[in-house]
Amino acid sequence: MLTTRIFGATSIAVVLGAVTYFSGVSIAKAADIDAKKIFMTHCKTCHGEDGHPTDLGTGLGAREFANAEWQAKTTDEQIIKQINNGTPEKMMPFKEKLTQDEIKALVSVIRSFGKK
Ligand code: HEC
User: Fold this and answer.
1) Domain of 45?
2) Which pLDDT value is given to residue 6?
3) Regions of the chain short of the pLDDT cut 70
4) Residue 12 lies in a domain
5) Is residue 39 part of a domain?
6) What sign has the CA pseudo-torsion 51, 65, 57, 76?
7) 70 in any annotated domain
8) Which pLDDT score, from 0 to 100, does residue 32 have?
9) Mutation test of ligand 1: which of 47, 60, 67, 104 has the most ligand atoms closer than 8 Å to its C-beta?
10) Whose CA is nearest to atom 16 of ligand 1?
11) What is the number of structural domains in the chain?
C-alpha cells in the first residue's frame, strides 16, 4: 500500500525532527541543514574554504580556524555568539539571515577545520 508507506516515512521524519529539536544545545546535525553549504555561501569569502582566511578576511582581522590553541580556548557558545552578532566593521551579524539551528550547525564546520 503506497499510502501506508508514505504515511510511515512521514511519521519517522517527524519523530526524528522532534528528537533533533529536543536535543537542544547539542549541535544540530539535522539532515535538512547542510552546514558546509551554508559556510560556503556566507562565510567562505572571508574565512576561506578550509577555515584559512582569505586576503579579504586577513585584512579585516579574521583568524586561522585550524589554530589548535584557538580551537581549545574557544567555546561553542562563543562561536555561536560571534556568528549571531558579528563584530562591527569586521564581520556582519547573521542572526537575521540564518536560523539558530543553522548557526549551531556551523559550529561543527568550524570545529572540523581544527581536526587536520
Ligand atoms: C566580511 C567578512 C566575513 C564574513 C563574511 C564572515 N566573517 Fe567571521 N569573522 C570575520 C572577521 C574579520 C573576524 C574577526 C572579528 C574580530 O576580531 O572581532 C571574524 C570572526 C569570526 C569568528 C570568531 C573568531 C574569534 O576570533 O574567536 C567566528 C567563529 C566566525 N567569524 C565565523 C563566521 C561564520 C560561521 C561566518 C558565516 C556565517 C562568518 N564568520 C562570516 C570576517 C567575516
Assistant:
1) 30-114
2) 62
3) 1-31, 116
4) no
5) yes
6) positive
7) yes
8) 81
9) 47
10) 87
11) 1
